[in-house]
């Protein structure tokens, strides 16, 4: 997907983005762009991370929302605004609307994480839950806007929103001018449109790589003509958009060099790595850029990559699940299903092997009834913690040498 000539007319220009930067200065956080030595070693690229999760609402969306609100006339502000959002755009509009005295109504899909609903309500917005996906919430918001005379603030397909999001690139290139590749998550395409416009104008040779969740390849299909399914439960709900913007799709076709798709497993791993290595919380959409480096490692080796950690609003229960699943995949946590005779001492003969290998038992489930084994037999499920996969494999070998039949319960 080669970028076209820089002279081609675009709805957003570098001048628009610079004007937005001046307009919002002081009201949004100028987040740091920092070199990650550990992520660089893990991926083979030189990796800089832009920590947009350090915004007050924990996401980059504040930039575009504030730019849009500041450009509205007083009459429209007084009547109020309405937006549709899976969460981060909602919080941004609600927060800056409250700061500016603008009444805000937000339509959110029903499955939106509780933390995002609560935080948006905390900024004083009126919340309407409607539909299962963004597209249904979006249609309902447009209906309410017409009925109530409210100004609709689009989450991505608006030049003023795009210009605000593009300020991310101004800061990144100023702080780390050596970046030669930008990796940007794509939902509706507002961020990559703004970032791409600014970056390509400042550094025409920079590579611009978009990233979508494999379950929601809507922009990829739009610009390539592919017909892939766009549905499913993704941890990256912030970029789970079935239909990208018309305006943004045109900009993406013009500027973006390639769009990469990433599986759920790698998005989960990226969330876990960012917490372990950078000691920072990323939501699924926010970790999508790092997931691309993990999925397509050879594509980025030797390059100087700028990742935008777009947001950090993730439900704490979901975060806990992601971290535990990562422990299981790495062999540091496991569940072993072991068959044994149901008689005194049988369980002790298993447990003593755990003690010998210094592997901690977390829980034991003893099942005699709901099993296809003979009535004199049973099985136990043991959840345990090991140092690493090799440590666990030593225990498994000893159990089998002792005559036990066991089946590791694996996740994918």
Automatic annotation (TrEMBL):
GO terms for molecular function: L-serine ammonia-lyase activity; threonine deaminase activity. Signal peptide: none annotated. Residues 335-412 form the ACT domain. InterPro entries: ACT_dom, ACT_ThrD-II-like, Ser/Thr_Dehydratase, Thr_deHydtase_catblc, TrpB-like_PALP, TrpB-like_PALP_sf. It catalyses: L-serine = pyruvate + NH4(+). It comes from the Bacteria. Its cofactor is pyridoxal 5'-phosphate. PROSITE patterns: ACT. NCBIfam families: ilvA_1Cterm, PRK07334.1. Belongs to the serine/threonine dehydratase family. This is Threonine ammonia-lyase. It comes from Allosphingosinicella humi.
